[in-house]
Amino acid sequence: MFDVEMEQKWMFLTATDGIKIAYDVQGEGPLLILLQGFDEARQIWHELGYVERLSQHFRVVTMDRRGIGESDKPTEARAYRLEQMLDDISAVADVCEAKKFMVWGHSFGASLALQLAARSERVNRAIAAGSFFGRVYFEERINQIVSELQVLYKAQQDGNLRELGLDHEDVRWVEERSLPALMACWQATVSWPVINPGEVHCPLYVYSGSDDRRITRPLLERQEEIDEAGILLRIFDHIDHAQELSEIEVVYPAAEVFLRKQPEE
Prior knowledge:
With about 260 residues, the chain is of the alpha/beta class. Helices cover about 40% and strands about 20% of the residues. The protein has a 9-stranded mixed β-sheet, sandwiched between helices. Helix 5 (about 140-160) packs antiparallel against helix 7 (about 180-190).
């Protein structure tokens, strides 16, 4: 069903629509798939120390979602349909020969984790950091983001990025990514279904930071519903959206405890 090949130090699978997905695997034990934020590559989990720690207890997979990192970068919105992106994750579990798997996502990756927790019977434990229940991606905001990316892309094509006032780090960010792929992915999120707490099929741990108000506010507004669904919710003091991942010493211990409750399957 899927073609798998080794290229350099990374593995690639070819999804059902022909898109190559890059991933790597380390450690032994129950399968745990890590899903990072929207424009980050899988190496962030390695750089921040998550893979080193988690691989002592789990078989840890990091993957580049389609459109980012070493994976292929289609530029049509239909390539980023939710069903296809969830299929990519399941395909990684397939090539790892895992009937069940766990998932830990941050930001955009957390939104994918919530979708999986509600839609896939294969997920037996999930962590969502920096996302919430309900409508996460609103069309008006997506259109604004796409418009901003279009400006960047035109300047990139014309060789005028510096004229936009971008510093060296901003220019590097643009050059290291496919802006048409990012725009296509954003456009596809408009049709993503809403996930509510009662729809989750597996043990779920949701966390955010008190300074990440866009995420924390809707979580706290629905805390009673979240509690009734048996979902564990934690808000870390003085942590913002990026720090929900970068502050590993703060967020990791509770996550490991939660994940290790999962029986090996």
